[in-house]
Amino acid sequence: MKPKITYANVVSTIALFLALTGATAFAIDQLPNKSIGAKQLRPGAVIADKIRKNAVTAPKLKPEAVKSGKLASFAVKEAKLANGSVTNLKLANGSVSTEKIAPDAVTGAQIAESTVGQVPAANHANTATFSESGNPVAFASVDQSGNVDPANSKGAISVKEGNEAGIYCVSAASLSPRGAQVTPRYNGSGNVNAFLTLGGTASCPAPQVEVRTYNGALAKAPFYVVLYR
Question: In the chain, how many domains are there?
């Protein structure tokens, strides 16, 4: 005898379906907080397109959870870094090389002077100083009356006697000397000494150089003088 579909059978079947689907919906709705974790997710189930913008913030990341191997090339740019977030302690040795530094990114104000050796130009400057010592811009051989010997002089040096015997005012055209030397010329008698003063004096206003010669006391005497820039 064939079974017949009755109204009661239809209604009971619909009721059973609704009961089952309702129970399922209730079960999903009532899942405990944090009951779905990494173990319940298929590999690759969570991708960038499925994450709400700004949903993942720094407080939600475990320490060292994001490493260089997990970052796409050029994913981290300057605009995404907080001020002071990258310090020396966070940089691996040798990680910042010349090719990774933008032109003019490092200026003198950002360099500790003690870490920089002498640059080639400075070495040339030292050489120039030594060279000027060997070939000064102005020098002269001066007799006791203040006359300059042109044959043994350079740089248009002029000398005039000061307000006392033994004082000479020395100058050179277009030169404000920052250094000078004087040497007495021994004239065959006595014990001659010579001294000079830079920066001007009452007898010889700047930029003149004052030379004083002594032979026991302040006295006229010949001398050699050299002036430096």
Answer: 1
Q: Which domain holds residue 179?
A: 138-228
Euclidean distance between CA atoms 180 and 169, whole angstroms: 13
**Are 194 and 142 within 8 A, CB to CB?**
no
Closest to 186 (Cα-Cα) out of 144, 134, 136: 144
Using one digit for the tens of pLDDT, what is the confidence trace for 124-148?
A: 555 555 555 567 889 999 999 999 9
Which among 195, 194, 193, 198 has a CA at the least distance from the CA of 172? 198
Q: Is the residue at 66 inside a domain?
A: no
Q: What is the pLDDT of residues 20-73, one digit of tens each?
A: 655 455 455 666 777 777 777 778 777 777 788 877 777 777 777 777 767 777
Residue 215 covered by a domain: yes
